[in-house]
Amino acid sequence: MDILALIPQFGGLIWTIAAFVLALSVIVAIHEYGHYIVGRWSGIHADVFSLGFGPVLWSRMDRRGTRWQIAALPFGGYVKFAGDANAASGKDEEAMAEVSDDPARLRATMHGAPLWARTLTVAAGPVFNFALSIAVFAAVLLTSGVTRDPLTVGSLHPLPVDARGLEQGDVILAVSGTEVPSRDDTEAYSAFISGLEQSPTLQYRVLRDGQEQDVTGTWLMPPLVSGVAPQSAAISAGIEVGDVISGIDGAPIYAFDELKQAVEGGNGTPLALTVWRNGDTLDLTLTPKRVDEPQADGGFATYWRIGISGGLAFEPATQTPGVGEALWGGVRQTVRIIEGSLSGLGHMITGAISTCNLSGPIGIAQTSGAMASQGAESFIWFIAVLSTAVGLLNLFPVPALDGGHLVFYAYEAVAGKPPSDRALRILMTAGLAMVLTLMLFALGNDIFCP
């Protein structure tokens, strides 16, 4: 065996693991800090704040008596509050017995604190995850801006068709005699795009330096690769952002819709692609994959996909939104992820879509590495998406998760007393078994699903 041939693969593995650990560490740190800080504000003392499990690599004690530590297994973390027996907040009977006669020390434990304090402390972890997602999505909007309306040319992409009548700053008024609708009107804009004649060039009516004029430009939405999905057919085939798919099975194409139609109508047949990359022409073979995609009505539909997203022939000019607009955009994006996740889970349970849509640690690690390789913005965006997923997962009403504890507290609020210690132990054991089963099932998906 050629050992040198393994070096690039080994480097890629290290990169994937590093990206996964970094993404998970950020999300876990935010989640656990939510528990910690709200618990502290609520008068509950934290004994340990740990990033990771297992042997402790580093630790220090702060002036409040909390030990901050980093452990060897960076696949999670926990806050152990006073009175907890373990990371899952099971009750330490001996510790609670020691403080039972001291009201002040009893109040500082998780199990002796008022119901409101325990509820806020437990709920804070998922809430901080959602807050992280909203903040990241809002920051991306503030940094990258929102597309200016009316549609304006920001910068031109390198394309194989030499028809650069468009210039930076041009305001697009009409294409092929049809007025360009607002991109906020998605229905009208989609109808406008689908109504354009597919050809190498189009006639544009633009506003330039205060005057309207007609120019010849490239097709409005060429088969330009503006994004590549992780674990996709495009990644496997070696397609990169910035590539232009100029031909399929020897026939030239000019519009992204032509590529989409060829993929969806091929029923998974391998496609011979001609790819233009920085002036060079490459021949690549790509086999589409079946993908379950959420629909506007909340359902799912199965399509053949290659995992690339398209874009305009130019980078649209943007404008910086207000802080309030950006935050609202972050909230909407977070809500969309939550709705899509719940819908996907429901459809997997009913058998409407494949359970292979559930990724485990290997799949998440691969996605982490792929997003990191596409740049800092893509990786940070992925962290925000994963943070939403972690926050949502922790709210599931499963004992040992935050949602399970909140169910116990709801029972206590209604019944006037918490569940018995024996019932809690049984439920916590069952909850841990459920979580481990789900993790093993997801790991099996990573290994055996196509």
Q: Roughly how many Å is the radius of gyration?
A: 27 Å
Count of discrete alpha- or pi-helical segments spanning 4 or more residues:
12
Secondary structural class: alpha+beta
SSE ordering: HEEHHHEEEEHEEEHEEHEEEEEEEHHHHH
Number of strands: 18
The N- and C-terminal alpha carbons lie at a distance of: 27 Å
Strand arrangement, largest sheet?
Answer: 6-5-7-8
The percent range for strand residues is 15-25%
* Form type: elongated
How is the main sheet built?
Answer: 4 strands, antiparallel
Low-confidence stretches: 1-11
Structure description:
- The protein has about 450 residues and is of the alpha+beta class.
- It has helices at about 5-40, 95-100, 105, 115-145, 185-195, 235, 255-265, 325-350, 360-375, 375-395, 400-415, 420-450; strands spanning about 45-60, 65-80, 145, 155, 170-175, 180, 200-210, 210-220, 225-230, 245-250, 250, 270-275, 280-285, 290-295, 300-305, 310, 315, 320.
- The strands form seven sheets. A four-stranded antiparallel beta sheet has the order 6-5-7-8, with no helix packed on it.
- β12 (about 270-275) and β13 (about 280-285) form a beta hairpin.
- The radius of gyration is 27 Å and the shape is elongated.
Overview features:
single chain, 450 residues, alpha+beta, four-stranded antiparallel beta sheet, disordered N terminus
